[in-house]
Amino acid sequence: MEKNLDARLKEEYVSSEEIFKGKIIGVQVDTVRLPDGKTARREVVKHPGAVVILPLTDNKEVVLVRQYRHATGEILLELPAGKRDGGEEPLACARRELEEETGYQAQEMRVLTAFYTSPGFCDELIYLVMAKGLLKGEACPDDGEFIDVVTLPLDEAVRMVLDGEIKDAKTGLGILACRGLEEQC
Amino acid sequence: MEKNLDARLKEEYVSSEEIFKGKIIGVQVDTVRLPDGKTARREVVKHPGAVVILPLTDNKEVVLVRQYRHATGEILLELPAGKRDGGEEPLACARRELEEETGYQAQEMRVLTAFYTSPGFCDELIYLVMAKGLLKGEACPDDGEFIDVVTLPLDEAVRMVLDGEIKDAKTGLGILACRGLEEQC
User: What would be an example GO MF term here (chains A, B) (predicted)?
Assistant: First the structure.
């Protein structure tokens, strides 16, 4: 699939207007040329990218965090995650976030895959990192982060994704991908 | 889990400053009071919500769309999806988007679950809708939408999610959830 040659679908960049530059996100409105030659405006949220960690214990339990999400107005159950500071390498970011949020250190970590959370308007790319060989230490969340650590059997977590009790997309995808990859082994 | 009583985690709304009101998204910076009494600023992207459709043929094939995503600079393979116009009911939105993007009409549609795409900074909630009993008609994309329709066996789509060839989170979650629910039946 030669993405750069796919002129029937591709849009060409024309210009960009910066709207907002915040601590986490930036916002811009770009003008693009469509495949039919017309122009269109695209609202874009710029994000530095993130990692989500799937910490799996030797007993096939998943370590999750409960935290309040102001944007959604709910306490959500999620896999540990965090944004990449200044282009930080995904595994280094995963190691830091896992320890900060849960206190766990992992003896084995590897990137399973990466995905876009909302490609229609946002460039956020999240790396999914598997963490095994977990050693429990002391959590030390960032200033302003209030987090509960919750450990669940993988089977129970899979059920909660399918039943809609786990409502965070990166967490659902991480847990179901873990189950799928375990079955392949 | 009494979410409203969970004072150890919950943040209280203090005030809000509107930054941007676009066609698809809005942006605001809110001030919240943290559980320890301090205040913090939260950058929030407001989104009307969306649906993602899992169209499954009688032969266990999934109908997907290829489309260029300006925000990510790539052509992505995704399940058909679209935003809810003015609080549109999820099934009505799914019916409209499925037909516009792929030409298919579904005799059977039901909401499987709903999830947040980026709860750290965005309120976008996506309903996952299963569509079966597919009848092929003529696609009629919105003005400015350029889309290829692609049909793949469910097993192949699952493999592409696990291998990272399918990079869109809602698509990955929809396909893996479909596989998980099929196994439960």
Answer: ADP-ribose diphosphatase activity
Q: Does B9 touch chain A (CB under 8 A)?
A: yes
Paired tokens of A56: 């799996």
Task: Tell me the ipTM for this assembly.
Answer: 0.94
Asked whether the beta carbons of A113 and A80 are under 8 A apart, the reply is: no
CATH superfamily of the B50-184 domain: Nucleoside Triphosphate Pyrophosphohydrolase (3.90.79.10)
A90: which strand partners? Answer: none
Are B19 and A27 contacting, i.e. CB atoms less than 8 angstroms apart?
yes
Closest in B6, B148, B162 to A180, CB measured: B162
The per-residue pLDDT for range A16-69, each reduced to its tens digit, is 999 999 999 999 999 999 999 999 999 999 999 999 999 999 999 999 999 999
Which residues on B lie below 8 Å from A162 (Cβ)? 113, 177, 180-181, 184
pTM, two decimal places: 0.94
Please check whether residue B76 is in contact with residue B86, taking contact to mean a CB–CB distance below 8 angstroms: no
| Every domain range in chain B assigned CATH 3.90.79.10 | 50-184
